[in-house]
Amino acid sequence: MSGKALGPMRAWAAGALRAFWSLWALWALSAPWALGALLAGATIPAAAQQPQASYIGEKACLGCHSQENRHFADSLHAKMFRLNPRNAREERVCEACHGPGSLHAKDNANKELMVGFTRGWGTPVQTQNDMCMGCHQGGNRLHWPGSTHAGNQLACADCHNPMERVSLTSALVKPTINETCQTCHRQQRVEFNKRSHMPLPEGKMSCVDCHNPHGSSTRPLLKAESVNMLCTSCHAEKRGPMLWEHAPVRESCMNCHQPHGSNHEKLLVSARPQLCQQCHSPAVGHPGQFYNASQTAAAGSQLGGAPSPRTIGRSCQNCHSQVHGSNHPAGARLQR
After folding, report:
1. For a tag on the chain, would you pick the N or C end, based on fewer CB atoms within 10 A?
2. Residue 327 located in a structural domain
């Protein structure tokens, strides 16, 4: 193609590129996280501003809210805002989060005149979160827009209480991370009480060791790209690669294990050998259904027979001990 023919095409491509970047910039500036970034200094979100409202200072707030101040005085926010404010917004203390209070002081029954951080107050969740994101943007909250919690209209104040020191860290509404999460995730609370469970009730780990409640690139808010990458961050001996791999292990740890708790040993989804028989039912070698009620230890003692060695001890793993994979040259059947 000649240079004369390429000229109009180049001009058109340049114009299209400029239009694309213009539209992208317009969208970026209108996004909530971008708005929070612009407001990280001394201003507050536009949705929380009242046209006629003005700042009246912390002393005016304390004239009515002395009880709230007794709880707030020991909190991390109070110490930061009062002793070491980073900018003009933090110097306003109460009004840094609740917005200018002149109209609220005149008509404290009208809940639309200031930002409240409770469900009963009625301030939209997005407005509440914009106030928080004005300072707490980026970092662990990078994936908050579009996350499961954001999509379910969860407000920051549903999990955090910046007005009172209830927890030692993170300004939570409950004393610990686990208690805060289990307020909503009751099914997981039940699973952690089963006989085989992750050591969360014992205090050896917490929900945030595996999950990022503020959002991640995975659907269950994992702190890794996949279930296996998360599990092997602690269970490194199961990571591999193995010379002889076990296909379901390679696919997902959850094929065999429950992530929170189980009534079977080692967090298994079902007892052995039934767990193994879900996949292994060969036409040759072991019979397809080699376990039945007459082969258990209890039935053997009553009927005078011997229990099957495949139903006692570690069952299939009595022989196939390297169930997660083997690096032995003769370990094709995961026996060594």
Report:
1. N
2. no
Assess contact for 126 and 143: CB atoms under 8 A.
no
> What type of residue sits at position 245?
E
Residue 274 lies in a domain: yes
Q: How confident is the model over 115-124, as a mean pLDDT?
A: 92
Higher pLDDT pick, 37 / 336 = 336
Single residue among 66, 101, 134 that ends a domain in this structure: 134
What pLDDT is stored for residue 209 in this prediction? 96
Cβ pair 91, 85 in contact under 8 A: yes
Q: Is residue 156 part of a domain?
A: no
How many C-beta atoms surround the C-beta of residue 32 within 10 A?
Answer: 17
Domain count, the chain: 2
Tokens linked to 321: 């001990």
First to last CA, the chain: 66
Range of the domain at 81: 38-134
Beta-carbon contacts of 61 under 8 Å, excluding residues fewer than 6 positions away, are: 93, 94, 95, 101
**For residues 286 and 37, what is the distance between their CA atoms, to the nearest angstrom?**
64
DSSP H helices in the chain: 3-30, 32-38, 58-62, 66-72, 76-83, 88-91, 94-98, 102-106, 125-133, 148-151, 156-159, 177-182, 186-191, 227-232, 247-251, 274-277, 297-303
172 part of a folded domain: no
In tens, the pLDDT along 180-237 reads: 999 999 999 999 999 999 999 999 999 999 999 999 998 899 999 999 999 999 999 9
Of 81, 109, 134, the residue at which a domain comes to its end is 134
Per-residue model confidence (pLDDT) at position 169: 87
Contact of 245 with 320, CB cutoff 8 Å: no
